[in-house]
Write a structure and sequence with these properties.
With 249 residues, this protein is α+β, with helices and mostly antiparallel strands. It is 49% helix and 20% strand.
C-alpha cells in the first residue's frame, strides 16, 4: 500500500511542474527535472494524458489539459465555500466601489477562489486561481494570524528573512506579537501590497471545527481614508466573514 501511495504522489508531482512561468514542458525537460526513469515518466504521462489532465501539441510538448478546465467549472458551480459566500459578497460590494475577494488557504499560500466587483475603476491582480504568499496582502495576513504555534514556528524557520522584509517582525516573538494584534482586532488592512494604488481590508473565515480556511476581503481604489471610514468598512467585512463562517458550521 505504501509503495502504491508513493507512486501516486510521484505521478501527481508531474502536475506541479506546470505554472505561469513554465506552462509547457518537453519529455526531456521533465525527465531532467524530476529524475524519474524514462519508462516511469512515460507511464505517468500516458496516464495523465489519457485522463485529460495533460495534453500535447506537435512541437510544443506537454501542457495542462481540458480535464482541469472541466473540474474548475464544477468547483465554481458546487464548491460549498463559494456557494455560501457569493450572495454575501454581492451584498458587501453593493455598498462600496470596490472588489470583494474570497480566498482559501492552500499549502503555504492563499488562493483566490472567487471575486465580486462593483467598479471599473481598477482591476484586482488577485484573480481567481492566482495564489499569493502568506506574508503579503490583507487576504493572506488574515489567514496567517490564525496559524497554530507549530505552523507559525515551522514557517518562520523556513522564511525568517521574508517575515522581516514584510515588516512582521525581526524575531519570532515579534512576529507572534504582530499577528496577535491582528487576531485581537479581528481584521487587517494593507495598502498597495498586491495591487498598486488600492487598499485591502480582510477578515478570517473558519470552518465548522473553528479551523482557519480562508479570508474575505474588500479592495478599494484608495490609498488613504479617514479612521472612521476605515473602521466602518472593517466592521462590515468582519460581519460578512462571520456570516460565511456560521454558514459552514
Amino acid at each position: 500500500m505504501v509503495s502504491i501511495m508513493l507512486s501516486h504522489e510521484r505521478m501527481l508531482s508531474v502536475l506541479d511542474l506546470f505554472d505561469l512561468e513554465r506552462p509547457e514542458w518537453s519529455f526531456d525537460e521533465m525527465h531532467a527535472q524530476l529524475g524519474f526513469s524514462r519508462s516511469t515518466l512515460y507511464r505517468y504521462l500516458k496516464t495523465l494524458t489519457d485522463a485529460g489532465f495533460l495534453t500535447t501539441f506537435p512541437g510544443r510538448g506537454y501542457s495542462l489539459g481540458p480535464r482541469v478546465i472541466e473540474l474548475d467549472y464544477q468547483i465554481v458551480a458546487t464548491d460549498p465555500l463559494i456557494h455560501v459566500a457569493r450572495p454575501v459578497m454581492n451584498e458587501l460590494v453593493l455598498g462600496y466601489s470596490g472588489v470583494s475577494l474570497l480566498c482559501r488557504r492552500y499549502k503555504q499560500k492563499v488562493l483566490c477562489i472567487h471575486q465580486e466587483t462593483s467598479t471599473d475603476q481598477f482591476r484586482s491582480t488577485y484573480e481567481r486561481g492566482r495564489a499569493r504568499p502568506l506574508l503579503q496582502g490583507a487576504a493572506s495576513l488574515a489567514v496567517l494570524a490564525h496559524f497554530s504555534t507549530y505552523q507559525l514556528t515551522k514557517l518562520y524557520d523556513e522564511q525568517s528573512g521574508e517575515f522581516a522584509l514584510a515588516g512582521l517582525g525581526d524575531t519570532l516573538p515579534e512576529v507572534r506579537e504582530t499577528l496577535k494584534g491582528i487576531r485581537q482586532r479581528g481584521w487587517v488592512k494593507t495598502t498597495g501590497q498586491v495591487t498598486k494604488g488600492v487598499t485591502g481590508i480582510a477578515a478570517p473565515i473558519f470552518d465548522g471545527k473553528k479551523e482557519i480556511i480562508g479570508s474575505l476581503s474588500l479592495t478599494l481604489p484608495e490609498t488613504s481614508m479617514p479612521a472612521e471610514r476605515e473602521e466602518a468598512i472593517a466592521e462590515r467585512v468582519v460581519f460578512c466573514s462571520r456570516i460565511i463562517s456560521k454558514s459552514l458550521e
